[in-house]
Write a structure and sequence with these properties.
Number of domains: 2
Radius of gyration: 20 Å
Structural class: alpha+beta
Shape: flat
Order of helices and strands: HEEHHEEEEHEEE
CATH topology of the largest domain: Heat Shock Protein 90
Strand content: 25-35%
Strand order of the largest sheet: 1-2-3-4-5-6
CATH superfamily of the largest domain: Fervidobacterium nodosum Rt17-B1 like
CATH architecture of the largest domain: 2-Layer Sandwich
Number of strands: 9
Oligomer: single chain
Helix content: 10-25%
């Protein structure tokens, strides 16, 4: 299951060589306000078949915020988008979002020429959008939503996060708020919370309830955000269970890891 996105990426890559819209708006726990000043930028590329049918044609659309007087955050947003969309062409480096959009559409255009408008060829569509999900004193959380469809059996949708420490003017990571050497304790608490959420009794393997972890052993991913209540991890489709199961959210409350947190960090005000 974990290889589904890779397979879709390889499908695109092979086409270079020769959507169903499930866009998920992440609702994050905790209070937040939107007080930053920003404009919205859109990078869009249409496929050749849009000339004849603009309603059912291929396209790529990337929408993102440009924050006023925050160049490092803006660079981080664009770099993260490029990184998450690198599957489109794993053989050639893409340095800007215009190239990403053009590369995706070029694959579909190539398929159009080969298929001669085969009715079974579905339009390739890509929509990637950032949104300001949470803003707390000293902390900004951006949601990155990616939805795409190729000639696969269904569309794909993913959610990613970007955590920004506005005081330090840099990305905020788990290592920045956890005490060094307490990673294993944190993992145990996370697994306890996961088992509680999934109703897994002691001794029951995750696979017995349809979860697919490597070696059937619980693990955290690197897709998380900091909220007013805790640390939210999101496992995207095919990451730990099948497409029909959808994504899995795991919220680890600050109160359950209070003893593991560094003092005087950007999230300290939310730890009760």
């Amino acid at each position: 299951m974990k290889t589904a996105r890779l397979v879709a990426g390889l499908f695109v890559m092979v086409a270079l060589l020769s959507c169903t819209n499930h866009n998920k708006k992440q609702s994050l726990p905790g209070k937040a306000t939107d007080t930053l000043t920003y404009t919205t930028s859109v990078v869009e590329e249409e496929a050749d078949d849009c000339k004849n049918d603009s309603t059912g044609c291929g396209y790529a659309r990337i929408t993102y915020q440009v924050f006023k007087n925050m160049p490092l955050l803006n660079d981080s947003v664009k770099n993260r988008l490029i990184s998450e969309l690198a599957w489109i062409d794993t053989l050639n480096k893409m340095n800007d979002l215009d190239t990403v959009a053009k590369r995706f559409v070029s694959v579909y255009n190539s398929e159009l020429k080969k298929s001669k408008r085969d009715e079974n060829l579905r339009p390739y569509t890509l929509e990637c959008e950032t949104s300001l999900s949470q803003q707390y004193p000293g902390l900004v959380v951006l949601n990155i939503s990616e939805t795409y469809s190729t000639n696969w059996m269904h569309g794909f949708y993913y959610t990613y996060f970007l955590n920004w420490d506005t005081k330090a003017n840099k990305m905020l990571y788990l290592k920045d708020i956890l005490k060094k050497g307490h990673e294993n304790e944190f993992l145990k608490i996370a697994e306890k919370q996961f088992r509680s959420d999934a109703n897994l009794a002691p001794g029951v393997n995750p696979s017995d309830s349809g979860y697919d972890f490597a070696n059937d052993k619980f693990a955290l991913n690197n897709n998380y955000c900091f909220t007013g209540e805790g640390i939210l991890f999101t496992y995207n489709i095919y990451e730990i269970r099948g497409y029909s199961g959808g994504p899995v959210d795991l919220l680890i409350p600050y109160k359950s890891i209070k003893q593991l947190l560094q003092p005087n960090t950007v999230i300290s005000r939310y730890v009760k």
